[in-house]
């Protein structure tokens, strides 16, 4: 049999510790100078620390399918997955970007046919309510996660069925040979939760009071203020290292920074790199930053009637007129690069593909060929939602003006005001999983993809995208899948459905005494191998 892996019973679902590497770039100093004091030591209880994490906001629901930037920071401690991505593995693990897939809630697995996989479920795992996880819970969780229509899971439905064979084995059957199945089950779609509780309270109530198998359990939520998680000492991987984690809603960047410097907070998130000077100058705090597996972009509504940017020549002109290398360097202080849908986390499939070049003369030629005569292109942006997006749009407007493009950027307060009466909008997309079957194909190709409505025929991916994506998803060998992936990226660069701006940077302010490494995704990991003080 192939694809067979085993581990010692009871071993934690992650590998070696990696090296805690602080990335302290030359950030632009903010107006505040000097240290605001040494700050307080970590609060302790029962010999373990209680830490406070300040971030711009929290999410209303924390069910198993929540993957948005803020909610994901919390759910990562509440749930475990069937397969585990070890962010600390290999050479990339030193920077929190490891991609090795190792046993999680499944102690081992075996591919028995091209479309059938048997997962041996770890014994003695407890849910936060004290009940023991069963193979029935595992089967229910994966079937339910795929079936509830929540993005991005509806766009990943290669699974035909999940059944509990007996009290040890769960069989996953796919609709076709799926070389990325293990990578899928290492994402949120592989999370396991108790069937009885979920069915008794329903999806909405479960999200308000979630139960998983993770090292920390739901504590208390103060609406509009904070969410506290508490240590789950019956965790199958051993008692967690922290007594509690409180995530506080602190929308203002300056307030998060001030709270870190005075010792009120231990970690603060979502810091624009040009505002971190006070942290750099403080003796007790530092910046730990990482380019995440995400790309910021401007997405076009190609199906919208009257949209000038429905012409691919105009879309490509808008892309070529942006010096995205300069934008990435200046806006993110040299910490990142212009973005594409080609991510290092794809491992051997990664092509180190360059972004479309800065070519203003080429942009003008395309505009002339399209007969562009100054028609307005209306973009809409949720102000402050994406770190540095407001600044990026101010720079982009000037660059577009230089080549004669008439672009109007409208800033709105929230996504409820976004609407669809615009030609394009600020957005982002994730790598999603350690395989090229994620990212572009996840969002723009598969049935249920959350960008499908932005194609020329609303809700329907072009034939070329479907052909290349299907070959990626079902290809039986590396050469076939890699060639299809390259062709899909070529198609994207020709059509420019979105202007890929850059990979954003997640900059955390952290107390130096806290041994904690940020990962290349939005997860915050407080398991025993990634936290100490």
Could you explain how this protein is built, in words?
It is a single chain. The protein is α+β, with helices and mostly antiparallel strands. The chain folds into two domains: 2-101 and 194-288 and 506-532, Periplasmic binding protein-like II (D-Maltodextrin-Binding Protein, domain 2), CATH 3.40.190; 294-503, Dipeptide-binding Protein, Domain 3 (Dipeptide-binding Protein, domain 3, Roll), CATH 3.10.105.10. Helix content is 25%, strand content 23%. Strands 2, 3, 10, 11, 12, 13, 14 and 20 form an eight-stranded mixed beta sheet that branches. Strand 10 (216-222) and strand 11 (226-231) form a beta hairpin. Helix 7 (312-320) packs antiparallel against helix 9 (360-369) and helix 12 (463-474) packs antiparallel against helix 13 (478-495). It is globular. The model is unreliable at 1-41 (pLDDT under 50).
Helices and strands: which structural class? alpha+beta
Rounded to the nearest angstrom, the radius of gyration is 23 Å
Fraction in beta strands: 15-25%
For the biggest sheet, the summary is: 8 strands, mixed
CATH superfamily of the largest domain: Periplasmic binding protein-like II
The general outline is globular
Mean of residue pLDDT values: 89
Q: If helices are DSSP runs of H or I spanning 4 or more residues, what is the number of helices?
A: 13
Features:
disordered N terminus; D-Maltodextrin-Binding Protein, domain 2; 22 strands; 25% helix; five-stranded antiparallel beta sheet; alpha+beta
